[in-house]
Amino acid sequence: MEIIHTAIDGVVIIEPRLFKDERGYFFESFSQRDFDKQVRTIHFVQDNESKSSYGVLRGLHFQKPPFAQSKLVRVIKGSVLDVAVDIRKGSPTFGQHVAVELTEDNHRQFFIPRGFAHGFSVLSDEVIFQYKCDNFYAPQSEGAIAWNDPALKIDWKIPADKVILSEKDKHHPLLAEADGLFNYHEDLYKE
């Protein structure tokens, strides 16, 4: 796999090595050994999958400590714009984001470390989205920030009037008003 470093330290795009022939293709979607060596040592404990249609926007979500999560995300069918926002107070990139298009054709994966809010918008008619988490879902630890916070300057690649949100995602605070944000100087991976 090729690791593409982004403008925010720790947030990486992973491009697999694809083997194609007349039968189709093959690629290794995850190797614990390679991930630990090239990205960071981590232990994923939960896999999730969602299906959505064009215009659905999920986010921007995170889990507060001690249930903070890293995510390794990818698209099986369709395409999304995937976004990671740095919400670590004191970070030189606080409030900045990385956005990457993940598609069934590019097979890219996106690693979002602990300390980031995550969301995606669906660009295709339908998408099947999968992600690995390094901590279990803990509803009491849910946190979120508004997807359309003007301070974040995220271009979701869909018109605002076409955005489809859950009732919960319609009411998240702006980053400046959010609680449960992370401390840049704290080791979020310390057990």
Primary descriptors:
191 residues, mainly beta, Jelly Rolls, 6-stranded antiparallel β-sheet, 5-stranded antiparallel β-sheet, 4% helix, 40% strand, globular
Provide an overview of this structure.
- The chain has 191 residues and is mostly beta strands.
- It has a single domain, classed as Jelly Rolls (Sandwich).
- 4% of the residues lie in helices and 40% in strands.
- The protein contains 1 helix and 15 strands.
- The chain has a 6-stranded antiparallel β-sheet, with no helix packed on it. Strands 10-8-12-6-14 form a 5-stranded antiparallel β-sheet, with no helix packed on it.
- A hairpin with a 6-residue loop joins strand 1 and strand 2 (12-15).
- The longest helix has 7 residues, at 32-38.
- It comes from Bacteroides mediterraneensis.
Annotate the secondary structure layout.
Layout: E1 2-5, E2 12-15, E3 19-21, E4 24-26, H1 32-38, E5 46-53, E6 57-63, E7 71-77, E8 79-86, E9 88-89, E10 97-103, E11 109-112, E12 116-122, E13 126-133, E14 142-144, E15 182-183
Parallel strand pairs: 9-15
Antiparallel strand pairs: 1-2, 2-11, 3-4, 5-13, 6-12, 6-14, 7-11, 7-13, 8-10, 8-12
Pathway: Carbohydrate biosynthesis; dTDP-L-rhamnose biosynthesis
Catalytic activity: dTDP-4-dehydro-6-deoxy-alpha-D-glucose = dTDP-4-dehydro-beta-L-rhamnose
GO molecular function, one term: dTDP-4-dehydrorhamnose 3,5-epimerase activity
H/E element sequence: EEEEHEEEEEEEEEEE
Task: Report the sheet with the most strands, covering strand number, pairing sense and barrel closure.
Answer: 6 strands, antiparallel
Query: For the record, what CATH class applies?
Result: Mainly Beta
Helix content: under 10%
> How large is the radius of gyration?
16 Å
Shape: globular
- If strands are numbered along the chain, what order do they take across the biggest sheet? 1-2-11-7-13-5
Q: Please name the CATH topology.
A: Jelly Rolls
First and last CA, distance:
28 Å
Mean pLDDT: 95
Oligomerization: single chain
Q: Which architecture does the CATH hierarchy give at level 2?
A: Sandwich
Number of strands: 15
Please identify the structural class as seen in this structure: mainly beta
